[in-house]
Amino acid sequence: MKEWWKDFFGPLAGEIMFTPKAKVSKNEVEQVIKRTKTPKRARVLDLACGIGRHSIEFAKKGFEVTGLDYSKPYIASAKRSASQEKVKVQFVKGDMKNLRPHFASENFDLVVSLYNSFGYFKSRKDDFRMLQEVHRVLKPGGKFVLNTLNGEGVKKRLKNPISMGREPIKKVFMIDSAKFDEKKAQTQAEWTIVDARKSKAKIHRLKFHQNVYTNPQLKALLRKAGFTIETTWGLLHGEAFDRKKSWHQTIVARK
User: Fold this and answer.
1) Closest Cα to residue 106, out of 81, 135, 139, 62?
2) Is residue 40 scored above 90 in pLDDT?
3) Does an H or E element contain 232, and which?
4) Which of 52, 83, 108, 152 has the least C-beta neighbours within 10 A?
5) What three-state secondary structure class fits 193?
6) What is the CA radius of gyration of the chain?
């Protein structure tokens, strides 16, 4: 069975995910820099970089940046944006659980996985493999910032399945349905999207799921991969972390 993330991240999904977030990218990057104390001109790897919104902000602040994503359309979009912003970023198409074809060991000062891109793999062994790969490409003393769902907060929020309607982009309407499979410790979601921007509206349905980890579980996994935990906060923009309530957890780990 093909993994869902190999086909999910097309142009429409990208518009829905990234357009509403465009204005907060700078603040999110500033939070990461402040909390990791990463020096200027450091080498940064942005995993699952999408259309490059964080990669470009890091580059604007003088870092040497590489962004990696599996989606060809997103890599193409990221390259166009970097050119428009007149910043230098190397964008690479690749799978974050296997970085060996692209990067040597001890290559980066900072690796980031931002905006909830962890836990997509069918096997949790591959989630761990990704952490091992991050540890390998980091220089000794380098930092890893991982932003993902917080298991206890998800379990509380999705105690009962939810279904919400919204308009993330003008004339694009969607129903966002989600539930939590406690046995699998996994969120399972479906987007029903009506794109009414043209005279003939189109309906799209996208399904995805994500492995979820509690804060203690994720910290234990990071330690097993060789990391030391430094700090934790909630949503990327700087929200305080509540283990039982926060929807996201953002962890700084050091090699």
Assistant:
1) 139
2) no
3) strand 228-233
4) 83
5) strand
6) 18
Owner of token pair 């399972």 = 188
User: Considering the entire predicted model, what is its pTM?
Assistant: 0.94
Distances (CA, A) of 129 to 61, 150, 191, 248: 30, 20, 29, 22
DSSP-derived pairing of the beta strands 172-181 and 64-69: unpaired
CA distance 3 to 36: 33
Place of tokens 């000794």: 140
d(CA 138, CA 134): 6
| Distances 193 to 32, 95, 158, 187, 231 between C-alpha atoms, Å | 33, 27, 21, 19, 37
- Positive or negative, the CA dihedral 126, 119, 134, 43 is positive
Q: Which two tokens stand for residue 103?
A: 């990067």
Cα(212)–Cα(85) distance, rounded to whole angstroms? 35
Q: Which two tokens stand for residue 242?
A: 């509540």
Contact between residue 238 and residue 31 where contact means Cβ atoms under 8 Å apart: yes
β-pair partners for 183: none
Closest to 102 measured CA to CA, from 126, 124, 70: 70
pLDDT tens for 140-197 read: 999 999 999 999 999 999 999 999 999 999 999 999 999 999 999 999 999 999 999 9
Q: For residues 99 and 177, give the distance between their C-alpha atoms in angstroms, rounded to a whole number.
A: 33
